[in-house]
Design a protein that fits this description.
This protein has 464 residues and is mainly alpha-helical. The protein folds into 2 domains: 224 residues, no CATH class; 199 residues, no CATH class. Helix content is 81%, strand content 0%. It has 16 helices and no strands. α2 runs parallel beside α11, α5 runs parallel beside α8 and α7 runs antiparallel to α8. The longest helix has 61 residues. The chain is globular and about 60 Å long. 48% of the residues are buried. It is a multi-pass membrane protein.
């Protein structure tokens, strides 16, 4: 077998695999979040106009990152299942074609972004003061989008093999390098000129460019996952369809979240800027608190995908039930820590008593449902890994559109800011029950249809 199959997730203790994969992923995500905070901090030192300009760039960037995460989910799903089948040829074809697809998509969105740059940001509300800074940042960012999308998809392919440490190392390396280059390029040093907000974008392009080369080297030289022959157009098209079958719904569901949260922020604004500021502070704390759940959702896909390819539904069931129970148990610790430490945490960000009050309310109520949010993330990742994006799409849509959005509207009208915060808890708890039951039902049905695990076989020559 090639090195792609050195770390088979179809063998060995389930809990050991999950722990060994989750810990490095959680550390990598923490480093990435720390870099994003540092990026905002350094740009903020340039002035309010530059900081406002950077804030305007978040929605378009998040939409493109959501697309990238979705394509990565589709890539991880199909490759993990092929590895579970022990079909080396299929793995190489799928990996190569996923990188080709992400390259073409990144070039398309680069052209689209540059062509629509000013109209899009004018629509978002940018004025003549912020627009020059937005252009300085986004022109470089769009030109470097290929160095963002392709490595992220490549790292999804690496995770599909069960190798989580290598992508985690890349993510940590990129974050550290970016935090080093940011002040150097933004403020200048010695012969290096101060580039201002352009320097922040250039730091991203340089570090992501290095990660692009790094990922291609690993996929080719270490894991031997790239094809070195010309394929037929039919095979490429079939592989793209398989990737997009999961990737497009996953992208769409990722895009729903920021759109619905925008509605919540607009409602909070009707109750005063204090509520909006408190939500911003609490959201930053929340992002760091949910790192372990984000990590679990990232690693459960490769595990479920490989075991699905091998017909090991018993291992899939064990991994998911164990993950769900961990989410609930860990929530107790999170809720206690955040609840009792809410006032102290809020005062690290602001001295405004009104903002502190609402941060405390948020961190007392919403963390009670963080484990339920984790269950939803893990369930969605599992369904995508199984090649069944429909349940994941329904669950996400149910949470954000069917439950959350009406709940914040009702909560805002009758209970004010507290009602908006409680809506998050209601959405997480209610939809997590649906997600848990749906996963259990699906696995029971599949295990009834396939009662015996599929025995490992040698590589089967198969197109695509």
């Amino acid at each position: 077998m090639s090195r792609s199959f050195d770390s088979m997730l179809t063998e060995g203790p389930v809990s050991t695999h999950l722990i060994k994969m989750t810990v490095p992923m959680a550390l990598a995500l923490s480093a990435t979040m720390a870099f994003n905070l540092a990026d905002t901090y350094f740009v903020g030192q340039l002035g309010d106009a530059q900081l406002t300009a950077l804030s305007f760039t978040f929605p378009p960037i998040m939409l493109l990152i959501s697309l990238t995460i979705g394509i990565g989910a589709g890539t991880s799903s199909v490759i993990a299942r092929a590895i579970g089948e022990r079909n080396e040829r299929k793995v190489r074809h799928l990996t190569t074609d996923s990188l080709l697809l992400s390259t073409l998509l990144s070039l398309f969105f680069t052209a689209l972004g540059l062509f629509t740059l000013e109209p899009v940001f004018r629509m978002l509300g940018a004025d003549d003061t912020t627009m020059p800074y937005i252009k300085e940042f986004m022109i470089i960012w769009y030109l470097g989008f290929i160095t963002v999308m392709v490595p992220m998809v490549g790292m999804a392919a690496l995770r599909a093999t069960g190798d989580v440490k290598t992508p985690a190392t890349i993510m940590v390396g990129v974050a550290i390098a970016n935090m080093f280059l940011d002040p150097l390029l933004i403020f200048g040093l010695g012969p290096i000129p101060a580039l201002g907000i352009e320097g922040a974008a250039l730091a991203t392009l340089i570090t992501r460019g290095v990660s692009l080369i790094w990922v291609f080297y690993l996929l080719s030289a270490k894991h031997h996952m790239l094809r070195h022959s010309l394929p037929s157009l039919g095979d490429v098209a079939a592989n793209w369809r398989a990737i997009l079958h999961v990737g497009l719904p996953a992208s769409a569901t990722n895009m729903i979240i920021p759109l619905c949260i925008s509605v919540a922020v607009a409602l909070l604004a009707t109750h005063g800027n204090d509520a909006v500021a408190a939500h911003g502070v609490a959201s930053r704390v929340e992002s760091m608190s949910l790192v372990i759940f984000y990590a679990m959702s990232a690693i459960i896909g490769p595990f479920v995908g490989q075991n699905f390819g091998a017909g090991r539904f018993d291992r899939i069931r064990e991994s998911l039930i164990g993950s769900f129970l961990f989410c609930l148990g860990f929530t107790v610790l999170l809720a206690l820590a955040l609840g009792f430490g809410a006032d102290w945490t809020a005062r690290r960000f602001t001295e405004d008593e009104a903002i502190i009050h609402w941060v405390v309310v948020y961190l007392t109520l919403v963390p009670l449902s963080y484990g339920c949010h984790g269950i939803i993330m893990v369930a969605n990742a599992a369904f995508n890994a199984l090649g069944r994006p429909f349940p994941a799409t329904v669950i996400s849509t149910m949470r954000m559109v069917v439950v959350y959005t009406p709940a914040i509207l009702i909560g805002s009208k009758f209970f004010g800011v507290t009602g908006i915060f409680v809506a998050t808890t209601i959405a997480n708890v209610s939809v997590s029950i649906v997600a848990w039951l749906w996963v259990v039902y699906f696995l029971r049905r599949r295990q009834e249809d396939n009662p015996e695990p599929t025995a490992p076989t040698d590589t089967v020559p198969e197109a695509g």
